[in-house]
């Protein structure tokens, strides 16, 4: 252990009353310390503004950052609170400075590599086509990050064609096909391919028919009836005749068009009534079709790892993202390090060491369950000796 030393000197007076030439000085020396160490970091871009969590050891004081280089420019920045934030994919070199009033300062450099993110928002609904339909059906793609290109998937060439705008045409044969949608990505997200199912159906001439509809839940989702026959009608009207598990699954916004506003997951049966002009043998036909709404796609739970010094019974509040309802905490290892608080909203420090905590959200009506693992590191509080 190094200690601050105070040195003092004094001189004595002689009989000749000579001036006192002694000097006194006080010098304080900071304690030596182990070299600050910082690990290189590689992470995947999620969004602008995410804070970088670097792994450091031998930290004695206050950490500050200085960006030394960046390719391309502005990969990271130091925000107003002194944290290192992600701005875009790339590679940056950063200097870390550890300043302490007790220990000597120490510096280290590390490299942060931010890889392009994965576009989880790219989506498109499957479609159903009459095999004799010459008009085609336009794919509606959501969540793209770059230029879209469309291709007929291998093995589907005899069933469909697709143009540069994503319009799918049947070739006259019944079966199941797929379209490959390619999103070229951008400076922030990787390119990604999406396969869209296409069902080619047959019809009996002049028989009122509709394709079954299915989709994953999405807030504000609307679905339009997919009619399979081509007979001219005088009028069409739609009504819901059954819903499960309750009557909160969907509603018809317009009885003449049959557009459905989806409110929750479940199943709906819709009845369509068509009337025909005098030239047809039947003046009216009735048909039904099913609508199946499954659970929607959700962003998985993510949680930021925690590293703190020991402080008995101090609460730790996990930073959880992607929560849709309420989550629970369960210590899966290191129960002597942390425990879940009585109200279940925080962790309570009980000892020194490492722990893992399962953060889980139960399945909701419209979304699946999700969980993430929180890693907790509690270190001994440094002893400070002057």
Structural features, described:
The protein is mainly beta. The chain has 4 domains: 37-115, Immunoglobulin-like (Sandwich); 123-201, Immunoglobulin-like (Sandwich); 210-294, Immunoglobulin-like (Sandwich), CATH 2.60.40; 302-379, Immunoglobulins (Immunoglobulin-like, Sandwich). Helix content is 0%, strand content 44%. It is built from no helices and 33 strands. The chain has strands spanning 37-38, 41-44, 56-57, 62-71, 76-78, 84-86, 90-99, 106-115, 123-124, 127-130, 137-138, 141-142, 148-152, 160-162, 167-170, 175-183, 192-201, 213-216, 222-223, 235-244, 250-252, 260-262, 266-275, 284-294, 302-303, 306-309, 315-316, 320-321, 327-333, 338-340, 347-349, 353-361, 370-379. A 4-stranded mixed β-sheet has the order 2-8-7-4, with no helix packed on it. A hairpin with a 4-residue loop joins strand 14 and strand 15. It is elongated, with a radius of gyration of 34 Å. The termini are close together. Mean pLDDT is 88; it is low at 1-26. Residues 21-32 have a biased composition (Low complexity). Residues 14-33 are annotated as: Disordered.
């Amino acid at each position: 252990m190094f200690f601050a030393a105070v040195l003092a000197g004094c001189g004595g007076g002689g009989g000749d009353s000579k001036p006192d030439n002694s000097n006194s000085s006080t010098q304080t020396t900071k304690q030596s310390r182990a070299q600050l160490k910082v690990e290189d970091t590689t992470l995947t871009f999620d969004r602008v503004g995410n804070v970088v969590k670097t792994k450091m050891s031998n930290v004695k004081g206050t950490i500050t950052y200085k960006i030394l280089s960046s390719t391309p420019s502005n990969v990271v920045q130091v925000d107003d609170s002194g944290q290192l934030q992600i701005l875009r994919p790339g590679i940056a070199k950063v200097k870390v400075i550890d300043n302490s009033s007790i220990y000597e300062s120490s510096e280290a450099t590390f490299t942060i590599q931010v890889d392009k993110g994965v576009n989880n928002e790219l989506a498109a609904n499957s479609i159903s086509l009459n095999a004799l339909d010459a008009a085609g059906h336009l794919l509606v793609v959501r969540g793209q990050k770059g230029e879209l290109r469309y291709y007929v998937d291998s093995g589907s060439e005899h069933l469909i064609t697709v143009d540069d705008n994503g319009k799918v045409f049947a070739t006259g044969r019944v079966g199941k096909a797929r379209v490959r949608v390619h999103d070229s990505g951008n400076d922030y997200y990787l390119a990604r391919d999406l396969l869209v199912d296409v069902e080619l159906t047959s019809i009996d001439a002049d028989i009122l028919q509709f394709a079954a509809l299915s989709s994953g839940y999405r807030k504000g989702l609307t679905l339009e009836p997919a009619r399979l026959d081509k007979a001219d009608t005088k009028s069409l009207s739609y009504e819901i005749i059954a819903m499960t598990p309750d009557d909160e699954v969907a509603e018809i916004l317009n009885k003449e068009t049959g557009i459905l506003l989806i409110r929750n997951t479940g199943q709906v049966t819709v009845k369509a009534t068509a009337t025909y002009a005098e030239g047809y043998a039947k003046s009216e036909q009735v048909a039904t079709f099913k609508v199946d709404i499954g659970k929607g796609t959700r962003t998985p739970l993510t949680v930021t790892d925690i590293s703190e010094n020991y402080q008995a019974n101090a609460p730790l509040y996990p930073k959880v993202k992607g929560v849709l309802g309420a989550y629970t905490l369960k210590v899966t290892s290191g129960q002597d390090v942390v425990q879940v608080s009585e109200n279940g909203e925080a962790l309570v420090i009980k000892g020194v060491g490492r722990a893992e905590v399962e953060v889980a959200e139960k399945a909701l009506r419209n979304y699946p369950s999700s969980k993430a693992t929180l890693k907790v590191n509690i270190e001994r509080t440094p002893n400070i000796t002057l």
